[in-house]
Amino acid sequence: QDVILKAEGLRREFVTQKPLFGKPTVVRAVDGVTLSILQGETFAIVGESGCGKSTLARLLVRLIEPTAGSVWYEGDDIARLDPRALRDLRKDLQFIFQDPLSSLNPQMTVGALIEEPLITHGIGDKVQRRARVADLLSRVGLIPTHADRYPHEFSGGQRQRIGIARALATGPRLIIGDEPVSALDVSIQAQVVNILEDLKEAFGLTLVVIAHDLAVIRHMADRVAVMYLGEIVELARAEDLFTAPQHPYTATLLAAIPIARVGSRRESARVGPRQERAQLDGDLPNPTAPPPGCRFHTRCPHAQARCSTERPALRDLGGRQVACHFAETLELTGLDGADAAR
Ligand code: SF4
Ligand code: MG
């Protein structure tokens, strides 16, 4: 499988200044991420809010600039493209936002919103563009007359479909969704996920999906990267990650999946015990002063003395990558066979 997008040593710092007193502090939202996205795969990036996954997503398509590192696409480092080349890049790499209402201009009709990227990139004449808008609407399960309405006239799920149609307009090769279904009712999430998967199939897309919740991506993802405080701690094939996590943080995230959400009604009785064992000790540490050694050591049930001083590198371990000193010896619990297959 070919690599479509490759990040190398990607870092992004934000400087935050407390208003009255206090020195500016630097947050490394993304701190040295290297990964490759394969052509045609669904790649998921998961972690708690504040772990840097949204920042990483924006860096991958250069919605924001890196402090250091590169993102390679078609032989170019997109972190260094000039504005014109960057505009062309937008055709190929598109972004879907978490909250469709805030990302869609409320003054524009749905038709105009979907047509806008076509005009920007000089695609088609007016008649062709209108036909393309109608086709895109039907592909996301809306009807052509919806083109004359405004975003506020639609439900959250429909608005996200409008966002998807707009992202598809230029015929992209890769779409990144930042929590594309998190703002939606659980009952609607599956619909939108199904639409994304159908479109991926129909257009041969590569998908990158950001999620804080592993339940959302467990049926979609081919590979999963788990982030903690700006770093990737585990990267593996989805099947391996779900059934046999090798980083304690991954195991904790898996334990937090409420079975009832993704399973049958019969399973709802099991939500209690599973959620109980999902407790993470304490909050995410302050990202301006991440813990020394392994960043997860303040919350890790398996931490040993070495973990608070020695930083574990992301190592190759039988077809996956793990950043834990004890990855080989820990026996971590994933989803059992029945849970994982569901
Ligand atoms: Fe836990 Fe230590 Fe592994 Fe970090 S290196 S995940 S603290 S066992
Ligand atoms: Mg986010």
From TrEMBL:
Spans annotated as Disordered? 266-290
Q: Which GO terms describe its molecular function?
A: ATP binding; ATP hydrolysis activity
ABC transporter domain segment(s)? 10-254
Pfam families named in the record: ABC_tran (PF00005), oligo_HPY (PF08352)
Q: Which Gene Ontology cellular component annotation is one that this UniProt entry carries?
A: plasma membrane
Q: How does it sit in the membrane?
A: Peripheral membrane protein
Its main subcellular localisation, reduced to a broad class, is: membrane
- Gene3D superfamilies reported in the protein's UniProt record: P-loop containing nucleotide triphosphate hydrolases (3.40.50.300)
Matching entries from PANTHER family are given as: D,D-DIPEPTIDE TRANSPORT ATP-BINDING PROTEIN DDPF-RELATED, TRANSPORT ATP-BINDING PROTEIN
NCBIfam families annotated for this entry?
oligo_HPY (TIGR01727)
Q: What is this protein called?
A: ABC transporter domain-containing protein
